[in-house]
Write a structure and sequence with these properties.
Elements (H helix, E strand, L loop, with lengths): L1 E7 L3 H13 L6 E4 L4 H7 L5 H9 L2 E6 L15 H11 L3 E7 L12 H4 L3 E7 L34 H20 L5 E6 L5 H14 L6 E6 H10 L6 E4 L1 H14 L7 E5 L5 E5 L16 H13 L4 H16 L2 E2 L9 E2 L2 H12 L1
Parallel strand pairs: 1-2, 1-3, 3-10, 5-8, 6-7, 6-8, 11-12
Antiparallel strand pairs: 4-5, 4-9, 9-10
Helix pairs in contact: 1-10, 1-12, 6-7, 8-9, 10-11, 11-12
The structure holds 3-isopropylmalic acid and magnesium ion (MG).
3-isopropylmalic acid binds next to helix 4.
Length: 361
């Protein structure tokens, strides 16, 4: 097993260190290589995704990724900004299937901004297509100034595009995920989110998802416009099981869904290609405002490492052990600042990592 470790920027280095600590006590036999990515790589190599980093990622079975980005790079030419590193990794490795579970842990019901009864027991899975849509449509990069802005320009545009194979493969991923979840007790429903009432791309999306759905008669399929989905997520989130949608809508809805659970600091994610090679990262960003303070929540990254063991490294028992350990530390009342409430114990990033390590023992 070969793991590429790419901590990145901001809190990335702090949270990845805790996840590595957890991996190290599991007694697995793995090789790892660490490399700079994002702003850190821009500083060291002049590019957010240097060839050397890309190569390490390509040769690994899995990538454990922290986060990239810092406001101080906002003035850089767009291809040099830290965000391009994650987009480049997704595109270069063909990581088209992004799994973003939103699970509300029993102990954190009160950390949600929604009423406890709306979120207690919430367990939904957002599957976001990750290598198509307006993110990668042509034309890109028509800038009129070197810093990526448009002085004096009269217009700017991006194009939304999906091909049939791109929609088919993500639809299959969603139906198969719903099937697996159904075997474990969920309803077996896929909700495909589109904007077919306005956009041709998403009428096409809806048609293709429906066609694929015919191959999964055991799974219910419904379609929802993205604006309604945004509303339903806060109105009645538990009505969802698996949500499948395009790159842009998935970006937005997954942030929204994460907040239902109390903190984005709890949510892992996986981005897989057709060979089950995967990039695993917390759903949150680099949080430069709290970087270096030792207060970030490492649990999303630790849970991402668990997803990595399950999806790419074929170690489901080790994954389960991590997940059980995380529940245990929550039950012990340990909380980083983002999930702290009166009556619990506030701990630092490192203390949280140490507690998970101890719970594993
Ligand atoms: C995410 C992030 C990225 C995205 C950014 C950092 C490019 O918001 O992974 O959700 O928009 O996909
Ligand atoms: Mg996002």
């Amino acid at each position: 097993m070969k793991i590429a470790i790419l901590p990145g920027d901001g809190i990335g280095t702090e949270i990845v260190a805790e996840a590595v600590k957890v991996l190290d006590v599991l007694g697995l036999n793995y090789e790892s290589e660490t490399a700079n990515v994002g702003g850190a790589a821009y500083e060291s190599h002049g590019h957010p995704l240097p060839e050397s980093t890309l190569k390490i990622a390509q040769e690994a079975d899995a990538i454990l990724f922290g986060a990239v980005g810092d406001w101080k790079y906002d003035k850089l030419d767009r291809p040099l900004r830290p965000e391009q590193a994650i987009l480049g990794l997704r595109k270069n490795l063909g990581l088209f299937a992004n799994f973003r579970p939103a699970i509300c842990y029993e102990q954190l019901v009160n950390a949600s901004s929604l009423k406890p009864e709306l979120v207690a027991g919430l367990d939904i899975l957002i599957i976001r297509e990750l290598t198509g849509d307006i993110y990668f449509g042509q034309p890109r990069g028509r800038r009129s100034s070197p810093d990526g802005h448009f002085p004096g320009a009269e217009e700017a545009f991006d194009t939304m595009r999906y091909s049939r194979p791109e929609i088919e493969r993500i639809a299959h991923v969603a139906f198969q995920a719903a099937r697996k979840r159904k075997a474990a007790g969920t309803e077996g429903r896929v909700t495909s989110v589109d904007k077919a009432n306005v956009l041709e791309t998403f009428q096409f999306w809806k048609d293709v998802v429906s066609e694929v759905g015919l191959q999964y008669p055991d799974i219910a399929l419904d379609h929802m416009y993205v604006d309604n989905a945004a509303m339903q997520l806060v109105k009645e989130p538990k009505r969802f099981d698996v949500v499948v949608t395009g790159n842009m809508f998935g970006d937005i809805l997954s942030d929204e869904a994460s907040m239902l659970t109390g903190s984005i600091g709890m949510l892992p994610s996986a981005s897989l290609n057709s060979k089950n090679q995967g990039l695993y990262e917390p759903s949150h960003g680099s949080a430069p405002d709290i970087a270096g303070k030792g207060i970030a929540n490492p649990l999303a990254t630790i849970l991402s490492a668990a997803m990595m063991l399950r999806f790419s490294l074929n170690q489901p028992e080790a994954a389960e052990r991590i997940e059980v350990a995380v529940k245990k530390v929550l039950a012990q009342g340990l909380r980083t600042a983002d999930i702290y409430s009166a009556g619990t114990t506030k701990v630092s990033t490192r203390e949280m990592g140490d507690a998970v390590v101890k719970a594993l023992a």
